[in-house]
Amino acid sequence: TTALSVKDLCKTYSGGFQALKGISFDVQPGDFMAMLGPNGAGKSTTIGIITSLVNKTSGSVSIYGCDVDVDFFAAKMHIGVVPQEFNFNQFEKVGDIVRTQAGYYGLDKRTAAERAEKYLKLLDLWEKRDESARMLSGGMKRRLMIARALVHEPKLLILDEPTAGVDIELRRSMWGFLEQLNASGTTIILTTHYLEEAEHLCRTIAIIDQGQIIHQGSMKKFLAGL
Ligand code: ADP
Ligand code: ADP
Question: Is 196 helix (H, G, I), strand (E, B) or coil?
Fold first, then answer.
């Protein structure tokens, strides 16, 4: 099955602004896809709809064969999301944030604790587990968001501008981490407005402009045509 299938997605915000004008694309299992486009193109809106954080006006979204409108919970289990803004409770402890998320996905306490340990260690945050999240640096908060998004081991991980405002050193280490995750079988989609990031990491690319997909295909072919 297709990892992600998006068909004819439209979004008109409550103010009347038409942010998406019929977006369609498929992502195959194991792919690492970049969604590239200028500010305001519709990337966050698209991701918001795929992850059920934004209501669509029309169209359909299917994740590993589960239509988000029909099999909401099954679709949710297949997907992990790293939003742009830090949206965890800053006053909660780092370890609790990840364990609580595992609970939302129905994992029992023991599995939740094991997964939290696994992903906090992978993201080099295990030593910080008993600290309040507000004490973390910006880069650590970003890594906490990734650990939290992986705790239910989703087949598809979506990251919205994961390295925006991140220094070069952390960017390189995050790139390495995402490459390993993809090599171990996780399908990844990220939005970025850095072509350099997309070029370094991704096998395929979809370019969004003014609420429409203006190009989709292999990264190599895209770069050859520039
Ligand atoms: P909806 O159509 O989903 O009801 P709202 O107008 O209620 O959208 O806005 C939801 C959120 O998006 C609010 O937090 C608001 O501040 C933010 N928002 C509103 N307008 C814009 C905009 N033009 N660009 C980005 N974010 C916006
Ligand atoms: P991108 O992620 O590519 O920068 P967005 O999806 O955030 O683009 O925004 C697409 C367009 O929709 C922009 O023009 C933005 O101002 C508008 N927009 C985003 N959120 C809202 C909202 N909640 N209400 C009204 N307009 C919005």
Answer: helix
SS3 55: coil
Pocket of ligand 2 (CB under 6 A): 13, 15, 17, 19, 37, 39-45
CA distance 9 to 24: 7
Q: Which of 17, 189, 190, 192 to mutate to test the pocket of ligand 2 (most atoms within 8 A of CB)?
A: 17
Per-residue pLDDT reduced to its tens digit, 18-46: 999 999 999 999 999 999 999 999 999 99
Average per-residue pLDDT for the chain: 96
What is the DSSP-derived secondary structure letter of residue 161?
S
Q: Which atom of ligand 1 is nearest to the CA of 17?
A: 23
**Could you give the ipTM of this predicted complex?**
0.74
Tell the residue nearest (CA) to atom 7 of ligand 1: 14
The b-or-e profile of 38-76 (16+ CB within 10 A means b, else e) is eeebbbbbbbbbbbbebebeebebbbbebebeebeeebb
Give the number of the ligand closest to the Cα of residue 54.
1
What's phi and psi for 212, nearest 5 deg? Answer: -135, 150
Strand, coil or helix: 123: coil
Q: What is the pTM of this model?
A: 0.90
